[in-house]
Specification:
alpha/beta
């Protein structure tokens, strides 16, 4: 059924200029900082709003490609690049097929963070008064113990290899560039230039590599037992990811310092 929906959208959309790249994830993994770094390049034009959610929400997706195109500025030059960043794309079940059907040539950028730290950061985000009342007053441990839904919603996002394989069934590996947040923290200019080169641009030095939305949290309510649980949950998934990438990830097998002790790009 869905393939006919894609076909209908394609047939009824004229003069569509698909985005040249998408930052597809991950949530609480540094997408805002990376996106803001990229749009500082004079040849990159960001969407009218960073997170468009076009491929997630049916009501938006069903409006078609012309609507999606309207969410981007007009290119000033033929070689300008258009892009957006919606971190929820990575974990969404339908997004790989939808993006591949409508934007098959778009380059994909994925930024990954130590999944245990990502989960903790996401918990604090949900627990903040500005977000919702859903998790307010719940400790990290209580959220894990009492809410199966929380595990599905938060912890499963850190199963990076599983989500990655789903995307690679729809896109060739060469069409995706993976950034590791911890590498970006240590060498921002180097890592951002890798992305620029992946997009077909030359090296470009930014005026500033200061992170956006840097978090400031207290982890006093998170017990060592909970951290150990997260490490054990993610360890086999991290190993699969390392084998796929052919490198050792800077996350290590254990978290030896405070889980919130590093720079937080959130």
């Amino acid at each position: 059924m869905m393939k006919y929906v894609y076909l209908l959208i394609l047939l009824t959309s004229n003069l569509f200029a698909a985005p040249d790249f998408l930052i597809i994830g991950v949530t609480k993994g540094g997408t805002t900082s990376l996106y803001d770094f990229l749009v500082q390049h004079p040849k990159i034009l960001g969407a009218k709003k960073k997170e468009l959610y076009f491929f997630i929400h049916d009501e938006k997706f069903n409006k078609g490609l012309s609507y999606y195109n309207s969410l981007f500025p007009t290119k000033k030059h033929k070689d300008d690049l258009l892009g957006e960043a919606t971190p929820l794309y990575f974990q969404n079940q339908e997004c790989p097929q939808r993006v591949a059907a409508l934007c098959p040539k778009a380059k994909l950028i994925l930024i990954l963070r130590n999944p245990a730290k990502r989960a903790v950061s996401h918990y604090f985000f949900f627990n903040s008064p500005s977000f919702s009342k859903k998790w307010q007053g719940l400790s990290f441990e209580a959220a894990i113990d009492k809410s199966k839904g929380w595990k599905n919603e938060i912890i499963n996002q850190g199963y990076y290899f599983e989500h990655l394989i789903r995307w690679l069934k729809c896109f060739p590996k060469e069409q995706m560039h993976i950034v590791i947040l911890e590498d970006l923290v240590v060498s921002p200019e180097l890592e951002v230039n890798k992305v620029f080169n992946f997009l077909g641009l030359g090296n470009f030095k930014l005026d500033s590599y200061a992170p956006e939305n840097k978090g400031s949290y207290s982890n006093g309510s998170i017990t060592p037992e909970s951290i150990k649980m997260l490490e054990q949950v993610y360890e086999p998934h991290n190993k699969k990811l390392e084998e796929f990438l052919g490198r050792t990830l800077p996350w290590g097998s254990k978290i030896t310092k405070s889980i919130l002790d590093d720079e937080l790009f959130v």
